[in-house]
Amino acid sequence: MTRGTRLHAAPAAEERVRDADRSQSTILAAARDEFAELGLGGARMDRIAERAGLNKRLIYYYFQDKETLFQAVLEQSYRDIREAERHLNLLELRPADALRRLVEFTWSYYLDHPEFLTLLNSANLHKARHLEQSRRARELNSPLIEMLAQILERGRREGSFRGGVDPLQLYISIAGMSYFYLSNNHTLSAIFGRDLLTAKARQERLTHMCDVVLGYVLRG
Amino acid sequence: MTRGTRLHAAPAAEERVRDADRSQSTILAAARDEFAELGLGGARMDRIAERAGLNKRLIYYYFQDKETLFQAVLEQSYRDIREAERHLNLLELRPADALRRLVEFTWSYYLDHPEFLTLLNSANLHKARHLEQSRRARELNSPLIEMLAQILERGRREGSFRGGVDPLQLYISIAGMSYFYLSNNHTLSAIFGRDLLTAKARQERLTHMCDVVLGYVLRG
Amino acid sequence: MTRGTRLHAAPAAEERVRDADRSQSTILAAARDEFAELGLGGARMDRIAERAGLNKRLIYYYFQDKETLFQAVLEQSYRDIREAERHLNLLELRPADALRRLVEFTWSYYLDHPEFLTLLNSANLHKARHLEQSRRARELNSPLIEMLAQILERGRREGSFRGGVDPLQLYISIAGMSYFYLSNNHTLSAIFGRDLLTAKARQERLTHMCDVVLGYVLRG
Amino acid sequence: MTRGTRLHAAPAAEERVRDADRSQSTILAAARDEFAELGLGGARMDRIAERAGLNKRLIYYYFQDKETLFQAVLEQSYRDIREAERHLNLLELRPADALRRLVEFTWSYYLDHPEFLTLLNSANLHKARHLEQSRRARELNSPLIEMLAQILERGRREGSFRGGVDPLQLYISIAGMSYFYLSNNHTLSAIFGRDLLTAKARQERLTHMCDVVLGYVLRG
DNA sequence: GATGAATGAGGCTTCATTCAT
DNA sequence: TATGAATGAAGCCTCATTCAT
To answer: Residue limits of the HTH tetR-type domain (chains A, B, C, D) (predicted)?
Structure first.
């Protein structure tokens, strides 16, 4: 008996299971938005339930409490960005192009996922205690570090890149340049009285960052 | 007249004023610590009073409410860093040295004032609404931008620096490289399983950042 | 036909019934423990299901709600003690020995069934409303009262017992002396700083109670 | 300046202090009633506030949480009964009269303070953990034990009492006989179909208990 | 200036119970 | 018979804030 043949019938077992999964995802997405907008302390369980369109009690059914929910949101966010990173085929590009692509990817991902930045902030405000409790923390290690190491090594062997560059340091610098600009965007705008998110400003920022990275890495 | 000589007497007017000032500073310092550790949402007025060793009611007496108090803390923090920046006499140094000095200063200030980073995060989580409400926001404009502009211009005229460098972009990059490393220190440590705050690691980070900035700015 | 020989077959009707009975007993035992440990207000339906290793919904299937379940537990407990009492063949003993045996039985039963004491407490906290609702309340009348009446009468006729002893009053006194000692054991221990449940202490208590009862009943 | 001279004046400092005290007593009394009627698990903080006519928050201001409040109620109840016991001048009476007076006092106190019985039950349901946490538990030791010891010794020396009676055992028996009758009154009434609290029934119970105690203690 | 007492709103969480197979 | 998913009501407790000297 296929699904189409049952009319007015109750969902089959497999479907009910999927309902549970769907509820969990819905909650997770709602929580992600709430936490991103208001931080762990400012988030409200009531509002998360409302955003999810589900009963508040269900949140506790699937995720024990607020802290656990936050941890689940964090893990999901990490899984998401790592998934995106895996699709970056940097090793097919020439070293300099690969670096440009990496800078651009980081920049675009942060731009498209502003919630990732605030979640990261919240996590660090709480001293990453949520990550430490996560057994999966290590799995969250970015594949980019290894890719970056290979790119740098290849560039050095080609003679175009300088040697002695620590890939982790460079990765952090690349991330930091995008991150600070976007994360502190409001403060910077207020202080400098300049909109930093116009199309032009964004293009200029990206160009600047590429220039910095390549200026550093490229052999004079 | 020392205080000990007056028995059962009410404090003199001037002394009362000094007490008032001292109370305010005490509250501000306590609030800064609390906000830095727990964010705006996680901070507790009770705890701030306790940290200050003063009655909670007094906080409301001096600072209308929690938001206003947070704003006051933010402004004070900005005043503090701007004050420190004013003592940086970069223009006395040669351009390359001035840049190194600027990177080092930023790095050291963030290291020594971790609360500044978390306050900044909190402010940005709330979209800098506290800054916008502050009449003094513009006064918070860093003098460093102007200094940096002059340094870059001088280096360019000397022929050692490349041209076309936007001082604001560079300033943000410098700040971002330190900021991300320190602010996300916990997350990074958890993920990469590497203590990023040992003396050696700190030295390496500083060297890396100087290399990046100078690598970018110096004419090949 | 053993169960193992039927593969993928639905259980036979008789077996289903046995399962049903077993489930009900399991629930009842789990509920008894939970109620005994935590009282009616402190007991949790979730925990009862967990203790029983059965789905919570099943509890509602067999016992309408928490109150009804409590009532069922109470009735079962009464049935249990009445059953034990029925095996006491006091009338075969001489009057004084029969009294000693009764005191000892009461004491031992309470010692061995501490849950009975707390259930009784809970029932009385709720003014025995669960008993009043029970159609079987009267059936719970202890056969001991009648036995005790006969013992007292026989002792009196023999000339060894005093007359005018109300069997119900004596029954309550016997029960009360054991009950208070055991039920308030924790409080008494805390206050008097003396472990009341060592083997020696228990023996002393039993001796004391027999002395009291016989001292009262025996003709000088 | 006496109180009467101030009209329309705000309460003086000493009075405000008393307000705090009064609030605490009011809460304590309301809590005692609620706990007595419904047990620890069944009591509701909301209802306690309502009974006290005070803001619920104030309960938490003075008594950290429900458990602490319960502990405070327990301690107060013990203080009350110990206070009453102190006014019993048993040593002025002849030994047999002193015993009768003690039985009567216990019976009357329990009759007049039914909440004491249920509080005791609740405390024991929770294994007296609230008492153990109380630093004052030992102070709650009844002065009656010592008095009873003296009465028994005096009776023995006079030749009217038997020897070898443990005052603690006797105290527990006296308390238990009253306690069980009253505490399980509802259950007993339901089972035996007999109202145990009529004036006549109460008189009979008291007579019975005196008979038991004296029958035991008096030398044949 | 300083403080202990008091409060209303709301937050997180738990509970008994029902739904829908 | 048995069960995982879902829910509304309510419970304990906390929070920022105000009252009343």
So the answer is: 21-81
Residue B5 confidence (pLDDT)? 41
How many Cα atoms are found within 13 Å in the side-chain-facing hemisphere of B7?
A: 0
Same domain? C132 vs C35: no
> Which CATH number is A139's domain given?
1.10.357.10
Could you tell me the CATH number of the domain that includes residue D39?
1.10.10.60
Kindly report the nearest CA distance between residue C92 and chain D, in angstroms.
25
Query: Helix, strand or coil for residue B161?
Result: strand
Classify residue C21: in a domain, yes or no.
Answer: yes
pLDDT in tens, chain A (220 residues): 333 333 334 444 444 455 889 999 999 999 999 999 999 999 999 999 999 999 999 999 999 999 999 999 999 999 999 999 999 999 999 999 999 999 999 999 999 999 999 999 999 999 877 777 666 666 777 889 999 999 999 999 999 999 999 999 999 999 999 999 999 998 888 888 889 999 999 999 999 999 999 999 999 7
Q: Is 0.90 topped by the overall pTM?
A: no
Interatomic separation, CA of residue A46 and C1' of nucleotide F15, rounded (Å) = 17
The total domain count for chain D is: 2
Considering the domain architecture, whether residues C105 and C56 belong to the same structural domain is answered as no
**Three-state DSSP state, C218:** strand
D58 CA to E5 C1' distance (Å):
9
Separation CA D79–CA D72 (nearest Å): 10
Residue A79 sits in the same domain as residue A20? no
Residues of chain C where predicted confidence (pLDDT) is lower than 70: 1-18, 133-139
CB-CB neighbours of A63 under 10 Å: 20
Residues A76 and A39 in one domain: no
Nearest to C151 by CA among C174, C179, C178: C174
The verdict on C54 and C128 lying in the same domain is no
Window 111-130 of C: residues touching D by CB (8 A cutoff) are 118, 120-125, 127-129
The predicted pLDDT at position B13 comes to 64
Contacts of A211 in chain B (CB under 8 A): 216
Tell the residue number behind the tokens 């899984």, with chain if given.
A79
CA geometry: angle at C151 spanning C149 and C152, to 5°?
65
Within a domain: B4: no
Q: Is residue B194, in this structure, part of any structural domain at all?
A: yes
Any chain D CB within 8 A of the CB of C4? no
D1 within domain boundaries: no
CA closest to F12 C1', residue: D45
Our CA-based measurement puts residue C190 at a distance from the nearest CA of chain D, in whole angstroms, of 6
Do D111 and D16 belong together in one domain? no
Q: Answer yes or no: do C52 and C84 share one domain.
A: no
Model confidence pLDDT, tens digit, residues D134-175: 666 667 778 899 999 999 999 999 999 999 999 999 999 999
Q: Kindly determine whether residue A208 and residue B173, on different chains, have CB atoms separated by under 8 Å.
A: yes
Report how far residue B168's alpha carbon sits from residue C104's, in angstroms, rounded to the nearest whole number: 92
Structure tokens at D91: 């040593």
Domain final position from A63, A81, A106? A63
pLDDT per residue over B117-166, tens digit each? 999 999 999 887 777 666 666 667 788 999 999 999 999 999 999 999 99
* C135 and C212 share one domain: yes
Quick one: closest CA in C to D205, which residue? C169
Cβ distance A169 to B193 less than 8 Å, yes or no, reads no
State how far residue D3 is from chain C, nearest Cα, in angstroms.
Answer: 43
What SS3 class is residue D196? coil
- Taking only the tens place, the pLDDT of each residue in D98-119 is 999 999 999 999 999 999 999 9
What is the rounded CA–CA span in Å between residue A43 and residue C40?
36
Residue B212 and residue A212: Cβ atoms within 8 Å?
yes
What's the domain range around A33?
12-63
- The CA distance from A184 to C60, in Å, is 55
Nearest to D216 among C179, C184, C211 (CB): C211
Residues of chain B short of pLDDT 50, as ranges, are 1-9
> What's the CA gap between D179 and D114, in Å, rounded?
10
Rounded-to-integer distance, Cα C11 and Cα B210, Å: 78
